[in-house]
C-alpha cells in the first residue's frame, strides 16, 4: 500500500527544519496517551508490536461505525496514528521527522511515511495502519 508514502517529501538529505529528537517528542507523547487511553478506557493493551495494529485498525473501524464526528475523534486518531508510527520506528529502526507542523516517519531506506494521516484514512474507511506498517518495514 503506497497511500502512506509521502510523495511531497524527498528521500534525500533532510531539510534544516527537520530535527531529531525534538521531532519525536510530540508523536511519542501522543502515542503514549493513546496507549494509556486504550488501556484505561477500552481495557486494550497495546505493546508496540506490529500485531497490535490489527487491534488498532479494529478500534478505528468501531469508532467509524459509531458515526462519531471527526472533530470529536481527531485527537484519538492522531494518537493511534502516532502509535503506529512508533511501531514502525521500533520495527524498522526509523525515526520521526517534523516539518511544517507535520510529523512523519523516515525509515532507514529514506522513505517517508505518514501514519497519522493513515489513521485519518482508516477513519474514512480507506486505510490500514497494519498494512502501512507492513509496507514500511518491508525491504524496498
Helix content range of the residues, please?
Answer: 40-55%
Largest sheet: 3 strands, antiparallel
> In angstroms, what separates the terminal alpha carbons?
12 Å
Residue ranges: pLDDT <50 for 5 or more in a row? 1-20
Q: What does this protein structure show overall?
A:
The chain has 140 residues and is mainly alpha-helical. 54% of the residues lie in helices and 9% in strands. The chain contains five helices and three strands, in the order H-H-H-E-E-E-H-H. The protein has helices at 22-41, 52-65, 70-92, 115-123, 129-137, and strands at residues 95-99, 102-106, 112-113. The protein has a three-stranded antiparallel sheet with strand order 1-2-3. The longest helix is centred in the middle third of the chain and has 23 residues, at 70-92. 41% of the residues are buried. Mean pLDDT is 87; it is low at 1-20.
Amino acid at each position: 500500500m503506497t497511500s502512506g508514502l509521502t510523495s511531497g517529501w524527498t528521500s534525500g538529505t533532510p531539510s534544516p527544519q527537520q530535527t531529531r529528537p525534538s521531532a519525536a517528542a510530540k508523536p511519542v507523547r501522543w502515542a503514549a496517551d493513546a496507549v494509556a487511553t486504550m488501556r484505561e478506557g477500552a481495557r486494550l493493551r497495546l505493546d508496540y508490536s506490529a500485531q497490535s495494529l490489527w487491534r488498532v485498525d479494529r478500534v478505528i473501524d468501531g469508532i467509524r461505525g459509531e458515526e462519531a464526528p471527526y472533530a470529536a475523534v481527531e485527537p484519538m486518531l492522531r494518537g493511534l496514528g502516532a502509535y503506529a508510527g512508533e511501531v514502525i520506528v521500533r520495527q524498522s529502526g526509523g525515526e520521526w521527522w517534523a516539518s511544517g507542523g507535520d510529523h512523519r516517519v523516515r525509515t532507514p531506506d529514506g522513505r517517508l511515511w505518514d501514519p497519522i494521516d493513515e489513521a485519518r484514512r482508516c477513519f474514512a474507511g480507506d486505510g490500514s495502519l497494519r498494512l502501512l506498517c507492513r509496507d514500511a518495514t518491508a525491504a524496498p
